[in-house]
Design a protein that fits this description.
The protein has seven helices and 37 strands. With about 450 residues, the protein is α/β, with parallel strands linked by helices. It folds into two domains: about 170 residues; about 210 residues. The chain has a 13-stranded parallel β-sheet. Strands 1-4-7-10-13-16-19-22-25-28-31-34 form a twelve-stranded parallel β-sheet. Strands 3-6-9-12-15-18-21-24-27-30-33-36 form a twelve-stranded parallel β-sheet.
Length: about 450
C-alpha cells in the first residue's frame, strides 16, 4: 500500500498542474486505498481536503496546505486517520462557520508534528474519542482576542490525549463533555484561557506551562480532576486567575508553581459535592492575591503549601470566614512568608498559630484605590495602630494551627516541575521571581536553624 502512494505521487509530479506550482492533495487522498500510508512530498497544496477513509497522511519535507484566508483546511470524517508533518496556513476568519485548520469527526485520530499558523480554530475534535493530539504548534490569527477561535477544542472526545503541543495567540483551549482526558507537557501562552474544562470528568492535567494568558486553568462543573506539576504564571488579563474552580468536586491540586498572577487560585462552590478536595504542596509566589475564596467554599484541605511574597494572602470575597476549611493536617500546616512567630524547638513548626488579621488589607478590600499606599509609611502606621489597639484589629479569617517555619518538599517539587516544563526559558522577569523565591526560602531555613540572628 505504501508503494501505491508512491506511484500516485510520481504520476502527480509529472502532471501539468504540479509543474505549475500547486499540487492536488485532494486527488491524492481520493486515489488512496483504506489503510494506505501516503507520503506527501514538499510543496504547496490547496485546502479544503476531506479524508473519508482510514489512512496515514505523512508530510515529507514539511508540505504546506494553504487556505488563502477562506474556509477550512482539513476535514477528517473516517476513523483511524493519522496526519503528521504538515504546515497549515490561512483559514478563513468566520466565527459563525468556525473556520478550522484540522477538524476531526471520527474516533482514533492521531494529529502530530504539524505547524498551524494564521488559523481561526486550530484542532477541533468533535465526537472523536481515543484520539491523540501530540507535538503540534498552533498559532492564531492577529485579531482581537474576543474574535479569535480556540486553538484546541475537545467536545465529546473521551480518553483523548493532548501531549507536547504549543498553543499561542489564540482564544481558549477547551475540554467540554469529555471524560478520561490526559493533558500533559503542553505550553499555552498569550491566549485568553489556557485550559477551560466544562462537564469533563476524570481529567489529568500534568507538567504543562501556562503563561501570559488571562486565565491559566479554569475548572467548571467537573468531577475527579488532578492538576499536578504545572507552571502557571503571569495571568494578568481581565480575570487574572492562575487556577479557577467553580462547582467542581473531587479534585487534587498538587505541586504546582503558581506565580505572578493577579489571583493565584480562585474558588467558588468548590467542592460542589462531598469528596476529596485537596490543595497541597503548591508554591504560590508573588501573586497580587494568593487566593480569592467565596463564602460558599467549604471542606477543602489546604496543607503543605508555600505562600511566598504575595501582596495579599487568602482573601474571602464577601462576608464570612474560612473556618470550614482545614489548614493543617497531622500536625503540619503551610509555610507563610509573613508569619510573625518563631520555632523555639527547631522542629520546623511555629510555636504560635498563624492568624492573618491585616487591617490595611481589609481596608483595601473595601476601597481598592487604597492599594496605591501599599508598602508606604501609611500602611505601616495602620498596622501599628491595629497591633497597639486590639479593638481595631479585624477578626482572623482562618487559623493555621501548625504553620511551617520553613518550606517542606513542596517548593523543591514545584521548582522541579517548573524546570521540566521549561519555566527556566521563560521571560527574564519570570526567572527573577523564581530566584527571589529561592533566596527567601534559603533565608527562612537559615533563620529557623539559628544561622541568622
Amino acid at each position: 500500500m505504501i508503494l501505491f502512494g508512491l506511484v500516485v505521487l510520481a504520476a502527480l509530479e509529472a502532471s501539468p498542474s504540479v509543474q505549475a506550482g500547486w499540487s492536488d492533495l485532494a486527488a491524492l487522498v481520493a486515489q488512496a486505498q483504506p489503510g494506505d500510508v501516503v507520503r506527501v512530498p514538499a510543496g504547496d497544496y490547496r485546502g479544503v481536503v476531506t479524508i473519508d477513509k482510514p489512512l496515514t497522511l505523512e508530510g515529507v519535507g514539511r508540505p504546506v496546505i494553504h487556505g488563502f484566508g477562506k474556509g477550512d483546511l482539513l476535514l477528517i470524517t473516517a476513523p483511524d486517520v493519522t496526519v503528521r508533518g504538515f504546515d497549515l496556513e490561512g483559514t478563513g476568519d468566520d466565527l459563525d462557520q468556525e473556520n478550522c485548520a484540522i477538524r476531526v469527526l471520527a474516533p482514533r485520530a492521531v494529529i502530530e508534528d504539524n505547524r498551524l499558523e494564521d488559523v481561526l480554530f486550530g484542532i477541533d475534535l468533535r465526537g472523536a474519542p481515543d484520539s491523540v493530539v501530540r507535538g503540534n504548534s498552533i498559532g492564531g490569527k492577529p485579531l482581537d482576542i474576543a474574535r479569535r477561535g480556540d486553538g484546541l477544542r475537545l467536545w465529546k472526545s473521551d480518553r483523548a490525549r493532548v501531549e507536547g503541543n504549543t498553543i499561542h495567540d489564540g482564544r481558549d483551549a477547551v475540554l467540554w463533555y469529555s471524560e478520561g482526558v490526559e493533558v500533559r507537557g503542553n505550553l499555552v501562552k498569550d491566549c485568553r484561557y489556557g485550559f477551560h474544562l466544562m462537564y469533563s470528568h476524570g481529567v489529568r492535567i500534568e507538567r504543562n506551562e501556562l503563561r501570559g494568558n488571562s486565565v491559566g486553568i479554569y475548572l467548571m462543573y467537573s468531577d475527579t480532576v488532578d492538576l499536578k506539576d504545572n507552571v502557571i504564571a503571569a495571568c494578568r488579563g481581565a480575570s487574572g486567575f492562575g487556577i479557577g474552580l467553580k462547582e467542581v468536586s473531587d479534585y487534587r491540586i498538587e505541586r504546582n508553581l503558581i506565580r505572578d498572577n493577579c489571583v493565584g487560585i480562585y474558588m467558588d462552590s468548590a467542592p460542589f459535592r462531598k469528596g476529596q478536595a485537596e490543595i497541597r504542596a503548591n508554591a504560590l509566589v508573588c501573586n497580587d492575591s494568593a487566593m480569592h475564596v467565596l463564602p460558599n467554599v467549604k471542606g477543602n484541605t489546604i496543607v503543605d503549601n508555600a505562600f511566598i511574597d504575595n501582596l495579599s494572602g487568602i482573601v474571602p470575597l464577601g462576608r464570612g470566614d474560612l473556618y470550614a476549611n482545614a489548614f493543617d493536617r497531622d500536625g503540619a500546616g503551610n509555610f507563610w512568608s509573613d508569619y510573625a512567630g518563631y520555632d523555639e524547638d527547631g522542629d520546623g513548626i511555629g510555636e504560635w498559630v498563624h492568624e492573618p488579621m491585616p487591617l490595611f488589607g481589609r481596608l483595601v478590600e473595601q476601597e481598592p484605590k487604597l492599594a496605591i499606599l501599599r508598602f508606604s509609611p501609611a500602611e505601616q502606621v495602620v498596622e501599628f495602630v491595629a497591633r497597639a489597639l486590639p479593638a481595631m484589629r479585624p477578626d482572623p479569617l482562618f487559623i493555621d494551627e501548625n504553620p511551617r517555619t520553613r518550606p517542606g518538599d513542596e517548593v523543591a517539587l514545584a521548582w522541579r516541575a517548573g524546570r521540566e516544563a521549561g519555566a527556566g526559558e521563560s521571560e527574564e522577569g519570570g526567572r527573577g521571581a523564581l530566584w527571589a523565591a529561592a533566596a527567601l526560602l534559603v533565608a527562612a531555613a537559615l533563620a529557623s536553624s539559628g544561622g541568622i540572628q
